[in-house]
Amino acid sequence: MEMPTKKQNSGDDFGFSDLSDEVFHRILNFIEMRDVARLSVVSKRCRELCISNPRLYLSNISSKSGGPRFNSYVDRFMALRCVHGVKTERFVLRWSFEGSVDQDEEYRVETWLQNAVNLGGVTEVRLKFFLPGPQHFALPLCVLRCNSLTFLNIDGGNTLLKLPSAPPYFATKLQRLHLHHVGIKNDFNLGELLSCFMSLKVLKLDNICGMKGMTITNSSIEILSITSVDRQLCDVEIQQLHKLYDLKLVWIPKSSSRTSLKISAPNLQRFQWAGITVDDYSMRDSADLLHAIIQLPAHSRGNHNLVKILQSVQKARHLELYDCFVEALLKHGFLPFSFHSVEH
Question: Quick one: 167 exposed, middle or buried, by C-beta within 10 A (0-12, 13-18, 19+)?
Fold first, then answer.
């Protein structure tokens, strides 16, 4: 076999010179930031390609990463991207502040996030934080104002997330918003914030705590999932969501509080509700309902609403009633019941 000559491969970048920019960037997506730093000193081309990667992944969730030296390297790396005007298409940040000895670490992380967003072009941002104790993380306003952003995923690791109040304008192209394991102050109006995203189609709220009431009025939402919310949540109101066709709700509020669930989604096609029944329930007629799944226990509160629940899913073609819910219906004399359109 003929050995490669220096003309074919310079020998100082281990064959990376033979790879296209796109393939090189794809490889970078599978290695940690510390290894990217090592690769960037192999050759001039490796350095340029490491800096110019449009998909950026930063993390100190590793035994190899973290510490002041690593943070300083990321500072220089992000500064070089700004100098060269590198636009970030996808930005993923997984960061733990636990045991940090860097007093400015939170400020640094916010600066990296701002640098990635402010150059424009970013369409996807995924954030995951681990903060010790009662600390909170303030989401930079520039993230929500980014006009190119279409997908935002925030996992707070049960951290209090400080969101900005509704500014003059927000990301007009944001289509998917996922919030996981975050705390939100009770006096913060989440519904007002969400109503600013006029293109929002998918909203997923998972393990959100701190709020006693939640009102969602964004008429552009098509898919809504509210799962494993804090037991302090007492009232959920979904108003005039004309485009909503898929609704999932997993909710077990405190037994000592009065609760309510009000749904207005005339074009709803799929409805899933798990947890316990509420004291006040209403769902306006959903003539297009195709699939309904009810997972409510037999000995739950609000048993007077059982017939209302049946009426709200009366026109579903595919109906799943879990055995515990059927037991409650039999116990209170609500069966048999006439279902107009059930096929399965």
Answer: exposed
The whole-angstrom separation of Cα 24 and Cα 125 is 22
- Rounded CA-CA distance 98/228 in Å is 25
| Helix pair 68-83, 105-118: axis angle to 10 deg | 20
Cα→Cα distances 128→32, 59, 94, 153, 227, Å: 16, 9, 5, 8, 18
With bands split at pLDDT 50, 70 and 90, how would you rate the model's confidence at 16?
Answer: low
Q: How far apart are CA 318 and CA 21, in angstroms?
A: 50
Top pLDDT among 243 and 306 is at 243
CA distance 151 to 163: 17
Q: The pTM is what? A: 0.87
Mean pLDDT of 229-244: 88
Q: Which residue has the higher pLDDT, 243 or 35?
A: 243
67: left (phi over 0), alpha (psi -120 to 50) or beta: left
The arithmetic mean of pLDDT across residues 280-303, rounded, is 81
Q: Say how far apart CA 332 and CA 308 lie, in whole Å.
A: 13
